[in-house]
User: Which sequence fits this backbone?
């Protein structure tokens, strides 16, 4: 059985900061909509049983602190399988579909489930750090916000020997099919006086 590849989805400011006191330091509705679209869109919509509008769903994998930091009205994340990693809690928080003690256990189990399509890792910093170093991490969706924010959680450094930014102009011709598949806007975005850009890194 092949284990599925994972993709990371994150947004960071200039210092690679991703959060402060369990919350996002910025408010960007269009970036949040992008996150929702990427993590919700099923790429392999193999026909399911008659009458099922969509049998497959993507899984969003996160640490328990990240899950608890989602505002209660948005928790669990809709139309996605909510997966929490924790070595300390023994019972899944309300709304969580699966609780795993380790990344390995999560990837192995989710890979065996025919109703799960893509696996998206959505935080926090320790989970990102572990995931980015794993060979099954294939893509990193990283929104870079061109501003400074006070943060206490950070996105791990991206090893450019391992990953390349395929939204870079020089690489676009080669990887245009992937950019188009995810419908990634390539120009600089602005909202609430902030400029930001969507980047997609792929494992070499």
Assistant:
């Amino acid at each position: 059985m092949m284990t599925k590849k994972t993709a990371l989805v994150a947004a960071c400011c200039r210092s690679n900061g991703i959060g402060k006191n369990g919350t996002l330091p910025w408010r960007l509705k269009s970036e949040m909509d992008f996150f929702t679209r990427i993590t919700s869109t099923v790429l392999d919509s193999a026909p399911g049983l008659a009458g099922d509008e969509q049998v497959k769903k993507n899984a969003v994998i996160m640490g328990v602190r990240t899950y608890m930091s989602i505002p209660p009205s948005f928790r669990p994340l809709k139309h996605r399988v909510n997966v929490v990693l924790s070595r300390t809690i023994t019972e899944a928080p309300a709304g969580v579909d699966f609780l795993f003690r380790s990344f390995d256990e999560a990837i192995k189990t989710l890979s065996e489930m025919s109703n799960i399509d893509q696996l998206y890792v959505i935080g926090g910093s320790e989970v990102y750090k572990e995931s980015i170093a794993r060979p099954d991490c294939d893509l990193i969706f990283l929104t870079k916000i061109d501003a400074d924010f006070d943060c206490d959680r950070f996105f791990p450094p991206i090893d450019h020997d391992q990953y390349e930014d395929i939204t870079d102009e020089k690489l676009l011709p080669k990887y245009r099919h992937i950019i188009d598949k995810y419908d990634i806007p390539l120009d600089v975005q602005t909202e609430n006086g902030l400029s930001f850009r969507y980047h997609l890194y792929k494992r070499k």
In short: The CA atoms of residues 85 and 100 lie 5 Å apart.
